[in-house]
Predict the 3D structure of the following.
Amino acid sequence: MADAPKDTKQLLIETATELIWSESYNAVSVDEICKKADVKKGSFYHFFPSKAHLAMEAMDYCMCNTKGHYDDLFSPTRPPLERFSLMVSYIIEQQKEISAQLGHVCGCPFATLGSELAGQDELIGKKINEICAKKTAYYQSALRDLMVEGLISSETDVVAKSHDIFAFIVGHLIMARIHNDLGFIENHMEKSLLDLIGINRHI
Amino acid sequence: MADAPKDTKQLLIETATELIWSESYNAVSVDEICKKADVKKGSFYHFFPSKAHLAMEAMDYCMCNTKGHYDDLFSPTRPPLERFSLMVSYIIEQQKEISAQLGHVCGCPFATLGSELAGQDELIGKKINEICAKKTAYYQSALRDLMVEGLISSETDVVAKSHDIFAFIVGHLIMARIHNDLGFIENHMEKSLLDLIGINRHI
DNA sequence: AAAACTCTTGACCAACTGGTCAACTGCATG
DNA sequence: CATGCAGTTGACCAGTTGGTCAAGAGTTTT
């Protein structure tokens, strides 16, 4: 999440991501973003036609970042169960890092921004639909591989289950953000997730 | 959610609840709330020392409303499994109603507001802690009753499971809000929830 | 070297932000 | 009647909001 920004546009995107993720879209002003990035407002509006467009590009940036990691974590070369375990570890590490950097637990940037703008900007729904589709695709292929290995019931509704997993993680991240506490995620989420998937059935 | 407002203060709380739930805290201005409630701003600041205080009282109002319903749904006189089923039905009905009234799916008011203000106002975290504690208390007692009836494993970690249920529901509601679509909740949530609780284990 | 292009700058804007205030209303109590 | 008080009103405030723009700087292309 922290590479050297090349150009002004990228700098603005990264600065905005931090600020918006930490606070919220409407709580962060264009002036604030510009000031923190040390860029004049005229430059801002040279690259982005509006604040909303910046937010969209910030989401693309986040998703691009996530994809880089998930393509590895969910590589079909890994045992499917390991993919989920690694994902949970990755989430925990990422949250710890951001929390240390920004001073409090930030949760899922897509859910936070999406929830805030859902009643404001129609476009954001489409964008998050894309992201949701990508994430659930990772889950679905892992679930199918689990099924082949006989680790989950052959009657599992894979698509529905993938959405359950997504909602489950988003929900826990939102709660961690609100309570500013990663304790539950660190201590329980992996087990809870495996349970939701249907692994720990016959202890 | 729609009773006749008695006094100006209650009118403001109800108007603000609608507006904030539908859009977001920072997207709604005091002026807007006052205009819609047909109350002058001076009156607003007669009842509330600040916009943030209004938001707090709006949450209390929502929680009070919820409690009235949940005390019935989760009455120990009901079979524990029925309590969860009724809760899902209640959530669906409530979401449908609000969606029809406000023009789009609104999700969970606590999660939406909480997520937005988590990085802004420390106080909100405490408030939602209260709400979370109350909701999970309903779940926990139902889970314990399920355990006594032998419907879930006697090794279930009731407290952790109650938080999983809470996160699961919050997550699905957030996604419904973002996608502006209740389809998944209507078609899958009850089954998914029973599955998460650990009921549908031996189909 | 001239033109063309991308990028930067700072001044500027109208609309709006959360919040204040002194004066006013109507009603209950003494 | 008068005193007090909860509630109401509209004018007012300084600071901020998202956004514009003409002029200029730096670099490529012709």
